[in-house]
Amino acid sequence: MVDEKKDQAETTNLMFAINYNHYYRYYKHVLLMNNFDNIEKLVSDLSNGQYENLRQMIEIEILVNAIQYCNDLGAIAICVKKRRIKELGYMLSSIKDESITDFYKSIMNEKYKNVKKYMGYHDIDTENYKNLKYLRSCDRYIDDVSRLSKFYLFNYDLYLSHKHGLRIAPMGSKDGRSMFFYANDSGALGCYFIPEFKGVINSIEVCDIIKNIFEKLYIPLIRKTMLEFLDLDADSELPLEKSIETEGNLIPNPTIRFNVSYTNPWWNQKNISDEHFY
């Protein structure tokens, strides 16, 4: 009975994982950019000052959406490091903001042995491993996530002000940059400019990087985990027919079709290949 319940829980979580809408924030970004460019067509009869304030607030929404996308990626990376994809739904509901912030603070200085855990790669002696694609893959991941880290950590306080009660006021522009005041815990108003300095990449680049990481790294890994759980071949394309339990209700035979390419670096030391690295 215990094993049956565990099987149902893992199936439920893997069904969640395989249907995880990793691209939602990316397309929300596209929609927000469209709103920013076409605000006069979408909302009529506002004054010039009102249009300016509204457009500035959409800028904040674009930035906040990118930070939330960083949160999504950080949560998945932590889940992968702990090798708990079969508990993905539970993990995403229980990971604290502090853990995600710590991930972005530490990633730039992480050693290969920890980086590959965040990527879900199998254990391997990187010092003696002749396939340099493995190390290049880790370096590429460190570089991409380090760029996200600069953006995430610099804008995090502004994100919190938006998240907890929209404590942000648009204040026009100065030297071609949008300016905002935001309330913080110190009792004084903070001042924020977009963009503040060139070292922080913009929201467009952030969303592109995260979408690429999901598509090339985490989604194939999730699909591979699903296939391993079902004891199926990696080239399978099939309907999944298993009963899953959701909040006490048994849902019979949900059907989903998917296929997956075999990705050798993940959790398997056999048949190591030069291909399919991030």
How would you describe the overall organization of this protein?
By secondary structure, the protein is mainly α. It has one domain (9-258). 55% of the residues lie in helices and 11% in strands. It has helices at 2-18, 24-37, 39-42, 48-81, 88-94, 97-106, 112-119, 132-163, 203-229, and strands spanning 168-174, 177-183, 189-194, 238-239, 244-246, 249-251, 257-258. The strands form 3 sheets. A 3-stranded antiparallel beta sheet has the order 1-2-3. The protein has a two-stranded antiparallel ribbon with strand order 4-7. It has a two-stranded antiparallel sheet with strand order 5-6. β2 (177-183) and β3 form a beta hairpin. α2 packs antiparallel against α4, α4 (48-81) crosses α6 (97-106) and α7 crosses α8. The longest helix is centred in the N-terminal third of the chain and has 34 residues, at 48-81. The protein is elongated. The protein starts with a helix and ends in a 20-residue tail after the last strand. Mean pLDDT is 78; it is low at 236-264 and 266-275.
What descriptive keywords fit this protein?
278 residues; mainly alpha; 3-stranded antiparallel β-sheet; two-stranded antiparallel sheet; 55% helix; elongated
Brief overview, please?
This protein is mostly helical.
Shape: elongated
Unreliable stretches covering 5 or more consecutive residues: 236-264, 266-275
Order of helices and strands: HHHHHHHHEEEHEEEE
The proportion of residues forming helix, as a percent range, comes to: 55-70%
Please give the largest β-sheet: 3 strands, antiparallel
Tell me the total number of β-strands: 7
Computed over alpha carbons, the radius of gyration is 22 Å
Strand percent estimate: 5-15%
Tally of separate domains: 1
Structural class, from helix and strand content? mainly alpha
Q: Which sequence of strands runs across the widest sheet?
A: 1-2-3
Report how far apart the termini are: 40 Å
The mean pLDDT is 78
Number of helices: 9
